Amino acid sequence: MQFAQICDQVEINAASAGTIDHAGLIGTWVNSNPNTTGIARMVVEEINGELSVRTLAIGTTGLIDWGSSEITVYGSSPSSDAAAGFACRYDFGFAETLLQGMLLKGLMVLAQLHRFKDDSDRVPFFVREYYALEHGRF
Fold first, then answer.
1. 112 and 97 in contact (C-beta within 8 Å)?
2. Can you give the pLDDT at residue 8?
3. Domain that residue 64 falls in
4. Burial class of residue 108, CB neighbours in 10 A (0-12, 13-18, 19+)
5. Domain with 75 in it: what CATH number?
6. To the nearest whole percent, how much of the chain has pLDDT over 70?
7. Residue 4 domain-assigned?
C-alpha cells in the first residue's frame, strides 16, 4: 500500500521536498483561560535549526517550568509547505504528557494527553485549551 488516504498521493516538488515553513509556530503562546489549572504558556523557539517548546504550567506557588522539548512539525497535508501544528512529549518519570498543537484562525489549539506511570490509580486524562501569541501591544 502506497497511501492510507487519497490526500497522501501528491506530486513532490524536489526544490521544497521535506521543508515546512514553521515561522507561524514561533513565539510565546499564552493560555486564553485566566483560570487555567494546567499549562499557562509555551515558548516555541528555533535553536540551531531545531524547533523546541518550553512549557510553563500552573503550580501552587507560581509557574512550574517543564523545560524544553524538541517538537515535530506537521503540515496540513503531505504537500503542505506551511506548519499546521506540532507534537512533543514530556516524561516526568511518574507521568508522561503528550502535547499536540494545531494552528487555527490565529490561535494555538493545544491537546494535552496525560498518563500516569506510577501506582497511584489516577486515570489518564485529556485537556484541550486555546492559546494566543503574546503580542506586547497593550
1. yes
2. 58
3. 27-133
4. buried
5. 2.40.128
6. 85
7. no
Which class for 123: exposed (0-12), middle (13-18), buried (19 or more C-beta within 10 A)? exposed
Return the pLDDT at 49: 85
In a domain, 69, yes or no: yes
Closest CA to 31 of 120, 83, 89, 101: 101
Examine the pLDDT at 35 and tell me if it is beyond 50.
yes
C-alpha cell at 7: 490526500
- Are the CB atoms for 103 and 85 separated by under 8 Å? yes
**Is 63 part of a structural domain of the chain?**
yes
Nearest to 64 by CA among 39, 95, 85: 39
Question: Hey, what's the cell of 73?
Answer: 512539525
Q: What is the C-alpha R_g of the chain?
A: 17
In the chain, the number of structural domains is 1
Q: Is residue 20 part of a domain?
A: no
Output the pLDDT for position 79: 85
C-alpha grid cell, residue 67: 523545560
Residue 14 has pLDDT above 50, yes or no: no
3-state helix, strand, coil in the chain (%, to 5): 5, 55, 40
